[in-house]
Amino acid sequence: MDSPGEDRREQFAKQPKLARQSIAPAPAARFGRSATGQRGGISAAAVDKGTSLSDPMQRRAVDSPKDFLPGFGSSTQLYWCSAPQNVLVIKKYRDRQITQKFKEIVRYLVEEKGLKVYVESKALAEKDIQCDVQFAAVRTQLVSWCCEDEDCLAKMDDIDFVVCLGGDGTLLYVSSLFQKSVPPILAFHLGSLGFLTPLDLSQYKRIITDVIKGEATLTLRSRLDCVIHSGEGPASPAVNGRNHLEFERRISTPSPTSPKPEMHFPPLGGGNDVAQPQARFRRTPSIITNKTVTEQMLVLNEVVIDRGQSAYLSNLEMYCNGIPITDVQGDGLIVATPTGSTAYAAAAGASMVHPNVQAMVVTPICPHSLSFRPIMVPGGVKIEVKIPMNARGTGAVSCDGKNRQVLYRGDRVEISMSIFPLPCIDGVDHISDWFTSLSTCLHWNARAKQKQFDPEVEDEDATDGVETIPEE
């Protein structure tokens, strides 16, 4: 006899999925090695085991097909399939205050929680850590980790959760390291702005203990899947007898005997934070097939396509699900996630969007049109931006402010919502955290309150302008 969980799974499989997919792709249900999500008081694992649904709230959650697995719609309760054992600690570099807190947290994780702690080799090489005699015993128990080491690829799949010590840029760096499933992230506020880091460092013991027990909620921050296709268009027009970018792209079809082309990836940094080491092995490598170079990466904030070093007005063709939408003439275009709507997109005039909204924000940069306003499109669509063959100059594309590369005529960028979100531990809940960040970090709608009327004067003002009729 089939269990209730299997029956409901079969019912869910028979449901039409087109409507849901048009809104946004269903996110992956697994975060890292052993973490998953739990919504409506029952987890996906519990449903598989046929858990009794005696609670009315649980029945309502399971009766809705979209609540079988974690989604973007609301906070998700953290659920461990097995006890967490491995933790990766990422810190901002060249900051002594953060280094002291780093040593304190690492000591707590090793000595009191008995966890296996992975730390970047560059962090372990800092002078304040190497020369600290009192920290030497703990340092010998840490696992050195380097993003350029091929052996680290297998180690990253063993990470249960990540402790992020820094600002928003450090969190962007952590996102760039995980180009598929991401373990839960504890983002402590130690940076300049801290819009994306809601956790209070003074409460780190309580927060880490709650996370290990599974007594925490997650906000699934959607990420963009950006694919760059290099076409067969000619190089940029020459200026004064030479290319105005001083180099020319040459793509040739490789033969079976030709050596493997060398791949150069620009350094991945941490936003406004100090630049981080390159994370080459987490990027999908360039593939040359039929004279087309393809690169793929996951983006947390935004993809920016602009005019680059060209002095000409940017000319871009924009498509949505293959349908021509408009031509962009201006400085460029921003395609942002709800998380990125409070970054570059907000500066360009876009609305600020809650991270749980399933949408992408499309914002022009200085458009040469008074009617070209920012728009929001469903998260399930695919946006394509192309450099037309008749463009006067080149363009450029950058992801989260990094990985910048030149776009030539015929090149195109495909952007869609990824199924691998960034699960971040909530400070309070996803509503309180977001509005608190708006108020404290961006001073949203901050102004002096209007004074009330003086009660004694208010009675006199009420008769102003009212014509009185004298008594006879």
What does this structure look like?
With 472 residues, the protein is α+β, with helices and mostly antiparallel strands. The chain contains 14 helices and 26 strands. It has helices spanning 4-14, 18-23, 44-48, 56-63, 96-112, 121-124, 127-130, 136-139, 152-156, 168-177, 204-213, 344-347, 430-440, 455-462; strands spanning 30-31, 35-39, 42-43, 76-80, 86-91, 116-120, 143-145, 161-166, 185-189, 217-221, 224-230, 238-239, 242-243, 284-289, 292-299, 302-306, 314-320, 323-330, 332-336, 359-365, 375-378, 383-386, 395-399, 402-407, 412-417, 422-425. It starts with a helix and ends in a 10-residue tail after the last helix. Residues 15-20, 40-72 and 233-291 have low confidence and may be disordered.
In short:
This protein is of the alpha+beta class.
Mean pLDDT: 78
Q: Could you say which overall geometry the principal axes of the C-alpha atoms support?
A: globular
Q: How far is the N terminus from the C terminus?
A: 97 Å
Fraction in helix = 10-25%
Give the biggest beta sheet: 7 strands, antiparallel
The SS-based structural class is alpha+beta
Low-confidence stretches: 15-20, 40-72, 233-291
- Please give the order of strands in the largest beta sheet: 14-15-11-25-22-17-18
What is the alpha-carbon Rg in Å?
26 Å
Share of residues in strands: 25-35%
Enumerate how many helices there are, as a single number.
Answer: 14
Count all strands and give the number.
26
